[in-house]
Specification:
The structure holds 2 protein chains of 2 kinds. Chain A is an all-alpha fold. Chain A has helices at 2-22, 26-51, 56-80, 88-95. Chain B is an all-alpha fold. In chain B, helix 2 packs antiparallel against helix 3. Chains A and B meet through helix 1, helix 2 and helix 3 of A and helix 1, helix 2 and helix 3 of B.
Amino acid sequence: MFAVAAIGLFVAMLLVLIRLYSGPTLYDRVLAVNSFGTHTVLFIGVLGFLNGRPDFLDIALLYALINFVGTIAILKYFRYRAIGDMSPVTRKKETGL
Amino acid sequence: MSALDMFIEGLSWVFIVSGSFFAIVGAFGSLRFPDFWSRLHAASISESAGVILLLVGMALQAGLTLITVKLLIIGIFLFITGPTATHAVANAAYVTGLRPKEGTGLEAPKETSTKTEKPKSKVKVKSKPATKRRKPSANGKTRANGTTRSKG
């Protein structure tokens, strides 16, 4: 049963990876990265059950956290060209403040 | 093995197999759909249905242990952050000026071609100052439509 789920998730990850490689816009790629991360969380969990070691779920939880933060960070970077505080020049150009 | 155990086993089979089915369907849709906005829809299928079904199946398999609590925490977290991340991506794409293409089904069936072309021309007029302001970058194709500052 878990082997079936692992194979299915693996195929799904490959399909998402193709979209990640060939996405025409940046947002297609970001969406594909996010979707790939969600699939990876599930894949790690299923793999833990498959090996009889469900402690892998801790790793899956950590991966979910990092995936979300990473997606938001990528989006913020491409919007403002800075992850932390913007430089004053960029802030004036982007927001007018 | 009692009858209840067999029932739970079969139920978790159903949940896990249908969850991986939905994961594949979502991935296939996000590969094959023609537009960014429709791909958003396809990705959200595997992020809601696939996640919930797979986690419920795994929880049924684990029984009432600490593992189920961990699965519940993962499920709650993904349930909150999945739509949030999707909304962030969609909002970023919208602000940058990406708009859905009008497919053949979306066009007006009557001969009101002048009405349907009005919003198109509006977008084009808006995009012109944006291309002047923007530096040409690697993803200039998406930026070319952009009206980043018009909304403030």
